[in-house]
Amino acid sequence: MKNSLSEIDKKDSLLLIIDMQDKLLSSINETEKSGLIKNVNLLIKCADLYSMPIFITEQYPAGLGSTTVKLNVTLENKEMSRFEKMHFSIFKDDKIRQFLEKKARKNIIIAGIESHICVLQSALDLISNGFKVVVCSDAIASRNEYFKEEALRIMRSSGIHVCPSETIAYMFLEKAGTPEFKSVLPFVK
Q1: How confident is the model at residue 1 (pLDDT cuts 50, 70, 90)?
Q2: Confidence of residue 161 (pLDDT cuts 50, 70, 90)
Q3: How far apart are CA 166 and CA 18, in angstroms?
Q4: How many whole angstroms separate alpha carbon 176 and alpha carbon 159?
Q5: Which of 33, 64, 89, 180 could form a disulfide with 23 if both were Cys (CB 3.0 to 4.6 A apart)?
Q6: How many CB atoms within 10 Å of residue 41?
Q7: Are 82 and 56 in contact (CB under 8 A)?
């Protein structure tokens, strides 16, 4: 089975946003945090343009709070699913696995935190269960840059595609000059 990035079809993809909660974001340095939020919002815009399902997870929201309002504003009025979780890997949660089965999409685009825990474990479990996984390197973060770099190294060596969020956005757009292209431009400038 080929596992080429060029095979990632927007019609067979969904966007997974892992644990973008304010308490977790507070441990990310300010420069990286603003880029992270910008890039996740770019992915959300692209998912919305192509009616791609969006699902977000929240790790133990009773203690860590809900998804940051910096994304909720963008997610407002979007058809999306939200899941509370206790497992680090999304795939260990029965409700999330059932959701993935119901959506029947094989490509998972991943953004979120923390790179070396929930993002890594989720990506590894997804690829082990037959999904094509793309992790957007500039739309994930860890509280320590070394943790993120090691997680990216492990992902690459495990057959997970790693690329910038803008790469995915332009792959989905396919060409310039369209109304979709023009609506995405403010997110990449």
Answers
A1: very low
A2: very high
A3: 18
A4: 30
A5: 64
A6: 19
A7: yes
φ, ψ for residue 8, nearest 5 deg: -75, 105
pLDDT score of 77 more than 80: no
Tokens (6 digits) for 10? 């927007």
Nearest 5°: the CA angle 170, 171, 173 is 60
Q: Is the pTM of this model over 0.90?
A: yes
Sign of CA dihedral 60, 144, 73, 122: negative
In the β-sheet with 107-113, what is the strand arrangement from edge to edge?
A: 80-85, 54-59, 13-18, 107-113, 132-141, 161-163
The CA angle 97-11-119, to the nearest 5 degrees, is: 40
Amino acid 7 reads E
Which structure tokens are listed for 34? 């603003």
> Which residues contact residue 166 at a Cβ distance below 8 angstroms, ignoring those fewer than 6 apart?
39, 42, 138, 188
Q: Which residue, among 13, 20, 47, 39, has the nearest Cα to 133 in the 3D structure?
A: 13
- The answer to whether 151 touches 119, Cβ cutoff 8 Å, is yes
